[in-house]
Amino acid sequence: MNNKEQLNKVVIEACINGKLTNEEASKKLKYSIRYIKKLKQNYRKKGEEIFIHGNCGKQPVSTINADLRSKVVQLKQSYKYEETNITHFRELLDREEGIILSYSSIYRILREAGIKSPRKHKKIKVHHRRERLAKSGEMLQMDGTPHEFFKGDPEKYSLHGFIDDATGNITGLYMCKNECLQGYLEVLRQTLKNYGSPQSIYTDGTSIMFYNLKKDPSVEAQLNGISESATRFETILDEFGIEPIHAYSPQAKGRIERLWNTLHDRLRNEFTIRNIRSIDAANDFLPEFIANFNMQFGKKPKDKISAFVKLPKGINLDLILTARLTRTPDVSNTISIKKQLFKIDCKELLHKKKIEILISKKIGMKALYNSKLYSLIPIVNNATSLEKTNSDSTDDIIQNYIFYYCFSSVKSIKPIEV
């Protein structure tokens, strides 16, 4: 018996032996006089066993058995799950292993086994949190983050993403080797196809979005009366009526900064579980991840009316979501890009006409004139400052230019002026 049960026994015995009155026993045990009389009656019939709880010495029904506890610890220490935080580990136990336990149970099991969560909890800094906007599509936050996403691979890869301010839904994710134009174009493609055009995009001062306004605009821009140069990404946003907004600190776009903290852990662990070890395989998996993430963490907007505008039918995103250059061919329909000559595969004479050069992973390198696309043929005898191999293959040359204009790090290449 515990202390309380022993006290009950002593007082009731004293009451039965006449050493205490019912009133005195009631005050000592803080029971009613009626209950004291009942205890005395039961004690005379059954003895001291009435003071012992019926479940004393029995294991609670809710107790987690030793085998299950051992299995949870073994799974947490395994290669697949060793880097997961407890919240994500609990979700994976349910989804992957069919083990349903509460967060507190898993936390207690792991703590008793000396296993701590891998996530380091930093000291909390006080920031004034801005309220979410009312409508989905009013504003998306945009950013890119470098991280070691593949376990065992020390190289960092850049994940590009958009998140809706009103709902917290991810509208697009795309991974590249560097933070680059192509990454943001592909995230924009996902957003436009799945949601439509948002009203605005909120981002930091990356050169993908904002040109260095301290530099003088180009001569062509000055002749056209343009006081500020625009990047290609800004021009694309303008075509869809999307306003770019400059965030001047990471805290200003805190929603996507917090998203990166979550995805650094979750995506790395999801890639490990699925044995995903390449950028292409990661990008194939990301749409599935986005759908599950939004279902779990997305919020309902205050206003049910969406601010996203659906794309008009027949629009060709492949032609719009490209890097673009403007060139004027000579009499042989030849142009120069970074000291490399290209022949425009066109029978029509394009001499002194403004030709747009479209560059992207989807379409390669094409010349656009009067809404028609023409192939570009590199003249391989001419030296180029962009060739990264000794091969004379025309495809290698084109791939090098696609890499330079679309996949180069935003920190290593100047933005393309329009």
Number of helices: 13
Annotation, overall tally of beta strands: 11
In the predicted model, the low-confidence regions spanning at least 5 consecutive residues are: 221-227, 414-418
Shape: elongated
Q: Structural class given helices, strands, pairing?
A: alpha+beta
CATH architecture of the largest domain: 2-Layer Sandwich
Describe the structure.
The protein has 418 residues and is of the alpha+beta class. It has four domains: 3-51; 66-112; 140-297, Ribonuclease H-like superfamily/Ribonuclease H (Nucleotidyltransferase, domain 5), CATH 3.30.420.10; 322-407, no CATH class. Helices cover 37% and strands 15% of the residues. The longest helix has 20 residues, at 254-273.
In short:
This protein is of the alpha+beta class and 418 residues long. The protein has helices at residues 3-16, 22-29, 33-46, 66-76, 86-97, 103-112, 181-194, 219-223, 232-239, 254-273, 279-297, 317-320, 394-407; strands at residues 140-147, 157-164, 170-176, 200-203, 243-246, 323-327, 334-337, 340-344, 355-360, 364-369, 372-378. The N and C termini lie far apart (86 Å).
Key traits:
418 residues; alpha+beta; Nucleotidyltransferase, domain 5; 4 domains; 6-stranded antiparallel sheet; 5-stranded mixed sheet; 37% helix
List the helices and strands and how they pair.
Elements: H1 3-16, H2 22-29, H3 33-46, H4 66-76, H5 86-97, H6 103-112, E1 140-147, E2 157-164, E3 170-176, H7 181-194, E4 200-203, H8 219-223, H9 232-239, E5 243-246, H10 254-273, H11 279-297, H12 317-320, E6 323-327, E7 334-337, E8 340-344, E9 355-360, E10 364-369, E11 372-378, H13 394-407
Parallel strand pairs: 1-4, 4-5
Antiparallel strand pairs: 1-2, 2-3, 6-9, 7-8, 8-11, 9-10, 10-11
